[in-house]
Amino acid sequence: MLSRMVDFSPLKAVLSGNVIVKSENAKDYQGKVDETWNAAIRTRKPSAFVRVATVEDVVNSVKFCVKNELEMCVCAAKNSDFALADNAVVIDLSDMNSVTVDVEKKVVVAGAGAKLSDVDKETVRHSLVTPLGSYSELGVAGFTLLGGTGFLSRSLGCTADNCLEFELVTSSGDVVRASENENPELFWGMKGFGSNFGVVTSLKYRLHDIPEFVIGGDLYYPMSKAASAFKIIRDFLREREDNRLAVYMMLHFKRGGPQALCRFLFIGPPREGGALLMELTDLTKPLVNKVKPLPFDEFQKSGDWMVQRGITYYATMGNFVEELTDDGIDIIFDGINQAPDSRIVAGSNIYITSLGGKVKEIPAESSPYPFRKAEYWIGIVAGTPDPNFYEEVKTWVDSMDSRLSKYGIFPQGPEAEEEHERIRALKVKYDPENFFHHNLNIDPRKETQKDQL
Length: 453
Known about the structure:
Vanillyl-alcohol Oxidase, Chain A, domain 3; 5-stranded antiparallel β-sheet; globular
């Protein structure tokens, strides 16, 4: 769609938030562009940013865009590559970040603009938690709509598994709620493809008890011994069969070269966690041990330093694998040896995150999340401080990702086709014109969605 002049005055007249247009306020406009996590998308030129503050603001914004046939995308924490689009009106939900905890009912309601840290802060003070991601600056809404896995997934399931209700605004401007008892088919579809059906305005989650202190932190290994240490950690986790234990094996690239670490978390009694930690360190001999008792929300934030906002990133979906093989680990370390100069890829991360446990135990038919059989996710999130090296970084990531793909889980067969027909039917019902398409899109006009998997 070509850029054209749009009169936003009718929207401004009914909005409690504000509209930022480049021609009217270039400084604030550029400031909103620069809030995005990935510098690679900052070259896109939206027509305006609409900062919404209420559900009514969202309704009026959607109706305005539909009436004027305007492109629209949605953002909150601005971590998604769909946060900006050329010539689009960007609905910015970041001010809708309220978090309300009902301790007695063990539920929390989060506005769609809330970040993981906002939710953790309010729930952990009551020794309660819902399973979210592993980076505290992620937005809860976008994360949940994709299924969502993190440190607590082995013990509590995916984030979407713990979502009890979605509130959203559809392309017709209707406010719709989806739960097990209200629009249950939509509720099912929201837990994996929810951005296709409307703008989510709030989410209600189930809460679980968590100790005042968890055992968590990082174990650092010399690169020369990291591959063997990762294999020992994998075996250790498999043999213990304890869903209260989670590990993220990681390779973080600094200007001086990569460093290997294991993020360790145990959410049971401290004495048991300490014994497990001692056993693991005796086996793997880390150079540095930074694991200690601490509140869960502090643990969640403790890895944020590895995620650098504002550099140029490239990432694929990664590979969800049923088994983390020796060969898979060797491919990763061989890929590290083939990486561009460390100054080029400084800020990059390779993740080997433990799954399984409760994620596998929850029935597959409960949501369209397709990776329940996975024991690990292997993801490469490559960043470069210099965008001129983007293609070189992309080539490196694609090569390693392709080699790992032979172990990946890919939804296919009659069950996958049937599931995607259910999702397409929801798309036809709630967004027949595909107004919401700046996402992992389900095209309502297509009968099959193999190309979207």
